[in-house]
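In this section we walk through a basic example: taking a raw amino acid sequence and producing a predicted 3D structure, encoded as discrete structure tokens. The instruction is simple. Fold the sequence below.
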Amino acid sequence: MASQVTAGPAVEDGGAPGISAKYEAVIGLEVHAQLLTESKMFCGCRADYAQMPPNTNVCPVCMGLPGALPVMNRKAVEYTILTALALNCTIPEESKFDRKNYFYPDLPKGYQISQYDMPLSLNGHLSFELEGRRVRAGITRVHLEEDTGTLQHAGSVLHTAASSAIDYNRCGVPLMEIVGEPDLRSAEEAREYLVRLRQILTYLGVNDGNLETGSMRCDANVSLRPPGDSQLGVKVEIKNMNSFRAVHRAIQYEIARQAGLLDMGEKPLQETRGWVETESRTVSQRTKEYAADYRYFPEPDLPPLQISRQLVEEITSQMPELPEQKAARLVTQFGLSSYEAGVLTATRASADTFEAVVAGGLPPQAASRWLLGDVAKLETEHRTRLAESGLGVAGLVRLGNLVEKGSINGTTAKALLEELFLSGGDLDDLVQSRGLSMVSDAAELRRMAEEVIAANPKSVADFQGGKEAALQSLVGGVMKLTRGRADARAVTQLLRELLSAE
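The resulting token sequence is shown next.
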């Protein structure tokens, strides 16, 4: 018998949906995000290490050499507090760093400077809409630590199949950990949680949100239990997921795997499993460590942190308008639909572009149509944002307003859009030199319409006989004479008037 697994959410401001008769999935996410600081967490080495040759971005501090002492990166602390405030966390007045001891090749000191019992923040939450429901997921804490090095395993052209190499350039990069409560109940909720969290981090400017390169990483804790049971089941941690799709698929697989074990009367092991994308499954990596295994103790080389209320207020004042707030404002201020506002605020850059286009003078609805339609298509095809294209924000405003004023038609505007987006140029000169302005002279348009009517007696007779479609043939004839430089709606109305008079 196939196992049934609930997809019921943790719901706020509403009732819980139906729960499966067999199992309830309990999911919590742990997200690591590298902070966009100039230097590492405890030394002066560059935090931007990606393009540097292996093992060149290191110093005695990040390599843990004897006698080297760490110095705290203030900006990393401020970024972590800013993130915590955006996630509705409480900021305690005291915090400290701890040594988390474990031995692994990419950890040169044999321990990681992290936070244990006195983190920078506590007790937050992230709420979001999903399929008409409001989901509320608790945040246990947002704390700060240093990143490890990276391992390059077999398969590299530089190494034999039986070897691995270590690059310590990443050691010591500021790494923020966002520990979620086990409040998610489906793979869909977990994916959406991660999407919304990434959106907030990029809005704040503290992380680039790149899962593929590992600057943002996610581990998922998954367990099953009988519906309504308050006791948690055996937790399995899943690693090695580098996309939203991978997170969704890995959690779905793990729920099905654990349900299958329970159906057979077996109990899942508490362990860490890795997601193998090419095989669409999780595999066991190691049994799960407990906090005691890390032998935490206070970092003796760093003093405890005193976090003043004044500092918290200063950081709070730097908080940008967050995605949900911005989307709600666009709906209220500009009359956009919730869908339009949601897409336009998906990134801070797209939201800023929309507001810049509107501030430039293009009506909000027209700005939305352009940005969500033809501009979005060009940006995707050419991997270039509007602001960085040959057209630019000001160019789109000018082009859009020519259409709004009836100076050029939509077909002409779309052709010019692509040309200017790729190559740039003076819009007014192009319109004038190519004769692209709309035929707006009423007498000239009437003369052309009468010419088409005289040349197409059958279409005229068909229309006057009740065949509405025949009118479009006449409209096409006028548009051909104007080389597409007439308003099709105005031409249609003019032809109706002339044919009615006959």
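Looking at the output, two observations stand out. The CA atoms of residues 225 and 231 lie 8 Å apart. The chain has three domains: 24-310, 321-433, 442-501. In the next section we compare this with other chains.
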